Amino acid sequence: MLKLLVLFTLAVASRADITEEEDVLVLKKTNFDEALGAHPDLLVEFYAPWCGHCKALAPEYAKAAGMLKAEGSAIRLGKVDATEETELAQEYGVRGYPTIKFFKGGEKESPKEYSAGRQADDIVNWLKKRTGPAVAPLADVAAAESLISDNEVVVIGFFKDAASAGAKVFEKAADAIDDIPFAMTSDEAVFTNYEVSQDSVVLFKKFDEGRNTFDGELTKENLLSFIKANQLPLVIEFTEQTAPKIFGGDIKSHILMFLPKGASDFDDKMDNFKKAAEGFKGQILFIFIDSDVDDNQRILEFFGLKREECPAVRLITLEDEMTKYKPESDEITKDSITDFCTRFVEGKLKPHLMSQDIPEDWEKNPVKVLVGKNFEEVAFDPKKNVFVEFYAPWCGHCKQLTPIWEKLGEKYKDSEDIVVAKMDSTANEIESVKVHSFPTLKFFPAGDERKVIDYNGERTLEGFTKFLESGGKEGGSPAAEDDDDLDGEDLDDVDEGQDEESDGEDDGHDEL
């Protein structure tokens, strides 16, 4: 009997261990399985107390938890301090903060990655789409008004016959989008209230035109294109909250206007930028970045800009590889922006490759200094074996590598055929090599073949020496021609949209 009493007490204590902070469950290794059993639909944030992005997310995350709890929803939100619960974080492959995963049906294996924005409404809408019907029924005008009032964007299908072919297409489109609520109505009063006379799909939003009505052949593909072209503002400001929407969308061509909000002509330039955007909906995403915000300085640096050089405009593509374009004119008018974008769409622009001037003493030290203007000549010298570190001045891993790299340069400073070099990839770009993380180490062996070999070995003097003495065979691998794997998330990391781990699990690279 005493043994049973002890077991019962322990079980009760275990259940009581799931505490809450602002309606968010505090999860640990010891109560995680119990939480999954008690709450079949559970969103979990893995965070670090020192992570600035986790701190920014916290109030919105708590607000979303409170909204769901107030509704009586069975969906719950939890959080795990990954710096304390390292075993749990490792189990779910946490590599950066915050990492958010959705556990559905109490299943512990293969949780779904959270993929929407970081505002409370984004979180709630995403969860409701994941756990409920893709399309909610609207029975009357009050229900429609409430839905439109409560959401930044909502898509409503007006179908007099809910079983019609058009209604079925609408449902298929709704299944494909997680972060926007979809609803359908057949009620005549709702049709009349929103001045809809026939079967239609209307996107309601709290910005720009206020609403957009689909016009064309009703197919899933056409409907998705319509929604994706209209769900974001004509001009969207880049912030930590909007970054997931910007980079998670299907529009991979982005034009960015860097402009201080406090500028005397801010309204005029924004008006011109917005007017130009009207002609490129669905083709190019127009983004505004406040160049006076300290957190945005890394983005300016990524584009080779300084705060005092703003206002400025740049265009970037996030397709197979990241390519930047710079307008010939510094003017920010509707006509100049429209001309710039038109030439881009027509394929008439050449990529803009940044380069510093060649330093007068670039050959003076054992580690040679490369820039865009001398890279080709040095790296692809057919008589030299050139080992290059592509770095960023702010990269912690690069700073750790510096003394070792300098020793390597010293070791081979008198070599006739081996060159140890470095290049600041935040200020210099080259067409032949794409860099997606720092530091990136590449070897350019002698010969006319223009080969490139990635270094994947230990970052030690011994490892580098063995690699060079073997001609790039020990610790290296051939670099693919399309070695660039940059995408929107990487550009988001320029603004540190996710903080990397700094413990033993770190992969030794700082992402762009």
Task: Please give a structural write-up.
By secondary structure, this protein is of the alpha/beta class. The protein is 33% helix and 21% strand. The strands form six sheets. It has a six-stranded mixed sheet. The protein has a six-stranded mixed sheet with strand order 18-20-19-22-23-24. A five-stranded mixed sheet has the order 8-10-9-11-12. Helix 3 (52-70) crosses helix 5 (120-131), helix 7 crosses helix 9 (220-230) and helix 11 (266-277) runs parallel beside helix 13. The longest helix has 19 residues, at 52-70.
Q: Based on helices, strands and strand pairing, what is the structural class? A: alpha/beta
Poorly predicted regions are 1-16, 479-509
Mean pLDDT: 86
Principal-axes shape call:
globular
Q: Estimate the strand proportion.
A: 15-25%
Spatial strand arrangement across the major sheet: 1-2-4-3-6-7
Strands, count: 26
Task: Describe the structure in brief.
With 512 residues, the protein is an alpha/beta fold. Helix content is 33%, strand content 21%. Helix 3 packs across helix 5 (120-131), helix 7 crosses helix 9 (220-230) and helix 11 (266-277) runs parallel beside helix 13 (334-345).
